[in-house]
Specification:
This protein is an alpha/beta fold and 392 residues long. The protein has a 3-stranded mixed sheet, with helices on one face. It has a 3-stranded mixed sheet with strand order 4-5-6, covered by helices on one side. Strand 1 and strand 2 form a beta hairpin. Helix 6 packs antiparallel against helix 7 and helix 10 crosses helix 11.
Length: 392
């Protein structure tokens, strides 16, 4: 059903890297969420009031917050669609992250209010009624929420949206909480013990935990989390597929919202090749990633001597030395400056954050091991911190 709805309402639905197509996905999810949750809220609030069940009323209010969340999510996608302006030259993509944060805060506030009501009902119990309409509404709610979870998970993964993944997780929590309410109502009817307030407390705690998880997941991209490995691999594979490219390093990615990423990278190419032709390849790389991946990329050209056997041999030896210290380390931009008493080996070493060596310790370790190759070698090292996961 999900694929049918997507094909029906979204043009060019396969081009998920296009910001306009991505926004259509977000709007579709928002409309579906609003319609489904409003219907569930009205049905549950009616049943909850008729049967005097605080847990069903709590579950109904949870659906009401979900409808409000869908509205916020819809607004977030709409605002993130705004083009860049003088005050926001990188666009408004982070509105989507802010909308997800607002959803999480709203869920936590509602969770606290429901917890207070349920605790009060625990100490001041009231008799509740039981009937077939109650069971029908709760069962239908479980089925609808289960479908919504599947729907938002599929399109959330398809467009890599934190907001929709959070919405899907919230739907999953709703399935569990509604099942708890249903079980409590059935058990209470048959054993004669009122579990309504206990179920209400359970639902409230579940809502609070869901809100906490959503805040945790949403705050990472706002603070500047590491880019997704799949995205890095896609960039690396595309760059390395171009003729004349020997290697790449110093990739830095800045996230200003989905489909609004800016990056820079150093690309190694043979110094012996025609500079104009190498520059043309770099232009093609930048244009390719912008048009097909929505990535604004600046490429720095690194000329590498490839036909000097002495340089190649020393580079290979230094690379092996660095690898013995930590397999995640790498070097680049090696230059050799001979002297009368010693030879300077000037190069950069990329240090991932996982490597537990300080800059001073790393330099000393490399210099010591290079001296074992030739005592006349003097290392001049620049340590580059890696801002993306190292992909071998």
């Amino acid at each position: 059903m999900t694929n049918y709805i997507v094909r029906k309402f979204i043009k060019n639905h396969t081009n998920v890297d296009n910001p306009k197509v991505r926004t259509q996905y977000g709007k579709l999810s928002g409309v579906v969420g609003i319609v489904c949750n409003v219907i569930l809220f009205l049905a549950k609030i009616a049943v909850g009031l008729i049967f005097s069940s605080v847990s069903i009323i709590a579950d109904a209010l949870n659906n009401f917050t979900d409808a409000a969340s869908s509205i916020i999510s819809l607004l977030g996608f709409k605002l993130s669609e705004k083009p860049a302006d003088a005050e926001h030259p990188y666009g408004h993509g982070r509105y989507e992250y802010l909308s997800a944060m607002c959803i999480a805060v709203l869920i936590i506030v509602i969770g606290f209010e429901l917890l207070k009501t349920s605790v009060n009902k625990l100490f001041n119990p009231q008799p509740i009624l039981f009937g077939i309409p109650l069971v029908i509404v709760l069962v239908l709610s479980v089925l609808v929420k289960f479908w919504m979870m599947s729907f938002n998970t599929k399109i959330g993964k398809r467009i890599k949206s934190k907001a929709l993944i959070a919405t899907a997780a919230d739907s999953k929590n709703d399935v569990i909480s509604t099942m708890a309410v249903l079980i409590a109502a059935v058990v209470s009817n048959f054993v004669g013990y009122n579990l309504d307030s206990i179920a209400g407390i359970g639902v409230s705690v579940f809502i609070l935990f869901s809100g906490y998880q959503m805040i945790k997941d949403t705050i990472d991209p706002m603070l500047g989390s590491a880019p997704d490995e799949e995205f890095i691999i896609k960039i690396k594979d595309k760059i390395m597929s171009y003729p004349g490219v020997i290697g790449m390093h110093d990739l830095i990615i800045h996230d200003y919202g989905p489909c609004r990423k800016f990056a820079s990278v150093h690309v190694e190419m043979a110094a012996e090749e025609n500079v104009i032709e190498s520059h043309d390849v770099i232009d093609n790389i930048e244009n390719d990633l912008l048009q097909n991946n929505g990535l604004h990329l600046i490429v720095h050209y690194d000329p590498i001597l490839t036909k000097d056997p002495i340089t190649n041999d020393i580079r290979r030896q230094v690379e092996q030395v660095v690898q013995t210290i930590d397999s995640r380390l790498s070097i680049h931009d090696l230059r050799i400056v001979p002297g009368t008493t010693h030879t300077n080996l000037i190069f950069d070493c990329v240090r991932p954050v996982e490597v537990g060596l300080t800059e001073k310790e790393l330099k000393e370790a490399i210099c010591c091991k290079v001296k074992e190759i030739d005592k006349g070698y003097n290392c001049v090292i620049t340590v580059d911190d890696s801002f993306v996961p190292i992909i071998k």
